[in-house]
Amino acid sequence: MSDRRDEGMATRRRVLGDAHVDRAEARTTAFDAPFQEMITEAAWGHVWSRAGLSLRDRSLITLALLAAQGSDEEVAMHVRATANTGATPEEVMEAMLHVAIYAGVPRANHAIGVVRRTYAEMGVEP
Question: Locate the Carboxymuconolactone decarboxylase-like domain: which residues (predicted)?
């Protein structure tokens, strides 16, 4: 294993939590192992582990980008990760307002529904 992968795995666990990462690792097959290795090293090791932005800031940027793409499951996963990154519900809503202006009201409206449901599942009152 590379140092970048090790650093990526540590950051991935810090952001998503051990339980989530353990479930993902347990579901990994020979078919998707190359993808798991790539995202651990590239996304988590090369980008999320950089010192230029806080995990909170990266969390908000990621949520806005995922919402703009309509990636519901990923939005929900990264809303759950805010418990680890420190992004508040108020800050997440600010990110969704940016999505509305720069990616469109329908995308933001839909993502806000995903965010609300995810917070409800987490027992968080936004």
Answer: 34-116
